[in-house]
Amino acid sequence: xxxxxxxxxxxxxxxxxxxxxxxxxxxxxxxxxxxxxxxxxxxxxxxxxxxxxxxxxxxxxxxxxxxxxxxxxxxxxxxxxxxxxxxxxxxxxxxxxxxxxxxxxxxxxxxxxxxxxxxxxxxxxxxxxxxxxxxxxxxxxxxxxxxxxxxxxxxxxxxxxxxxxxxxxxxxxxxxxxxxxxxxxxxxxxxxxxxxxxxxxxxxxxxxxxxxxxxxxxxxxxxxxxxxxxxxxxxx
Length: 236
Ligand code: TZP
Ligand code: MG
What we know:
Elements: E1 9-12, H1 17-20, H2 25-35, E2 39-42, H3 49-65, E3 70-73, H4 76-82, E4 86-89, H5 96-103, E5 108-113, H6 116-124, E6 129-133, H7 149-161, H8 164-169, E7 171-175, H9 183-189, E8 205-208, H10 210-213, H11 218-230
Parallel strand pairs: 1-2, 1-8, 2-3, 3-4, 4-5, 5-6, 6-7, 7-8
Helix pairs in contact: 2-3, 2-11, 3-4
């Protein structure tokens, strides 16, 4: 099994001028970790393999120093090259089953899912966590397949809740348009008290790109988000 991970504030990086500007990604990520980010995904769709490995290595050093896991978007080869904690795979990437064979049981494998069917397959193939989205429309990722909203995410959580221990045990984060104005409401909406004896399946955290990377003070942005997502729901 992969390690125990706190998914509550999941940072997905972006190196584009529009979001990162002229700043250094590793410095920005370190500030975000100091603010309370609990896991980092290095997502970089444009750099060559050499640059990806170099940046991933530098990010991994910072993450390790703070005991925060690092996963790599899309690229199993880069994750292997730097021996970080895992990968995050979309629907068009290497299948989860192949990734598991390559990386073994101890690495984290995350999957992007937008539907119950995609969630079912990702769980069956052994994903450790699901990045469920797209929650809200966002400029950060233009080609988002589907905006599923809070209700779409709730439906997937309910499916996981009702589909056995493995599905219930698969961690979840939501992604797309999460920011300081909506994070707490999202967490509360995705945490429904259950009349049954069992604890309901809830979202384990929010995945955020621009609301942490874009601000001039990523540490403060992360710290504000952290307290919003970890404040217990009023009915708890
Ligand atoms: N996948 C679905 S939406 C998204 C990804 C990578 C981008 C989310 O970015 P932001 O800035 O947090 O809305
Ligand atoms: Mg991908």
